[in-house]
Amino acid sequence: xxxxxxxxxxxxxxxxxxxxxxxxxxxxxxxxxxxxxxxxxxxxxxxxxxxxxxxxxxxxxxxxxxxxxxxxxxxxxxxxxxxxxxxxxxxxxxxxxxxxxxxxxxxxxxxxxxxxxxxxxxxxxxxxxxxxxxxxxxxxxxxxxxxxxxxxxxxxxxxxxxxxxxxxxxxxxxxxxxxxxxxxxxxxxxxxxxxxxxxxxxxxxxxxxxxxxxx
Length: 215
What we know:
By secondary structure, the protein is of the alpha/beta class. It is built from eight helices and seven strands; from the N terminus they run βαβαβαβαββαβααα.
């Protein structure tokens, strides 16, 4: 009999209300473009995830109605942020929504701000992660985390935010040291981050908004 664990990964993507998201981008993008960029990042991230052969489904945890409608139209399942207690509580809530239906699902948390994400690179990360009870991928700065996974019957134990790489290491998660997966590590918080993501190749929705049209 085929188990839940054999039937692909469920990814949980948290997203703040757009009015609050990506505050550090305001200096580069301006107050008006910033929330639209945050939505474009999430749309390009979710579209790439759903295009990954190893992914069964995507749960987006958000209370933002505009983002919820846009991401649901791509095929994501939208779960309200009922805990309303920050990023890690939202991720645990999303995992609960997945495992309420598929108790032994392989689950992974993924940042919503990966506008250069490539499905093939994510597939490599998921393939490697399947070999560990818990595993993570550090961000491009080697300080934070963009991806954290948990195998069947294993709690995710997310500790995202700030210097989360060290927290995930100390919690017993295995750090995956993979090459050729830059798009999975390149999250965007600042204008410099966005320039680096653009060099990798932005997804279509972000590329349509950045750089902003002249005039």
